[in-house]
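Example record for the data management plan.
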Amino acid sequence: MTAHHLLPDLTARARTTAHTRTPACPCGTTTTLTDRPDGTVVRHESTVAKAHAPGMDPTDLAARLTTAASLPTVLLPPLTPAPLHLHGRLVTCWPYGTPVDPDDPDAAPWEAAATLLARLHRTPPPTPLPPMRGPLKALRAITRLREAAPHPAAAPVLHAWTLLPAWARAEASQPDTTTLCHGDLHLGQLVRHPAPDGPWLLIDVDDMGVGVPAWDLARPAAWYACGLLPPDEWARFLTAYRTAGGPAVPTTGDPWPALDIPARTLTVQTAALAVVKAVTADRPLDEVELAVVDACDRMGSVPPELAPGFAK
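Corresponding structural encoding:
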């Protein structure tokens, strides 16, 4: 079957699963939440169906589903205990949760996100898991940048990439191979379940695995270092993580020796994707995109061990 069959059949799967859960389903309109090459997600009432990226390893995904089912107070538990197959893609079904409101930044659940991460990091994996896929996603972003048309902003991004250690570039094993990590933490990875006002839970297990827990703190750390996250919000996040006993950083003192390499890597990844999007749309970089590219330029002039926080 070709790709154009996937969306309608995934929609049918979501509807069927919803009706199995709730025979008296009010049957409102089925909504496409995401439709990208790396994942398609549709919602029918209280049920969400996701077609994972092509090439997703079924054994790895099954292990991630087992982990999510085992930690229902940290991760949204799946409705399907094992992935299904649909047009060559692995498909999972989930209960719907209310996402973070992107139009209300003051209500961003930084404390909840940090507390959930700390609990995740402190939990021994309930089943053998593959490596956390964060470094691999960074490598894929750099690959896309190299394949894109030339752009003047590419040079500082690629140079900053070369200064990162091999493990951060997915060229060697991560220095931690036991800690349970989410792998792609941002505020879009939290929902309230049961909707609309249940407790916050983490979603999206695609990158989950064992690895360096500081990676899960790296995106907000990078935003803070780039001047994109206000200091008080970063302090709320970091304090909540430490208060909850998170192992990625020391309980007191300077967190940057642990955070610097992951935060630099996430900055490079973000900048690479920003340049690719600008090239694809044939438009200039916007203010936020310029900020992360400028951060890469600063990284290129000062080695990581000499400049925690990107020489802010």
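Summary line stored alongside the record: The beta strands are 31-36, 39-44, 47-52, 84-86, 89-95, 98-99, 180-181, 190-192, 200-202, 209-210.
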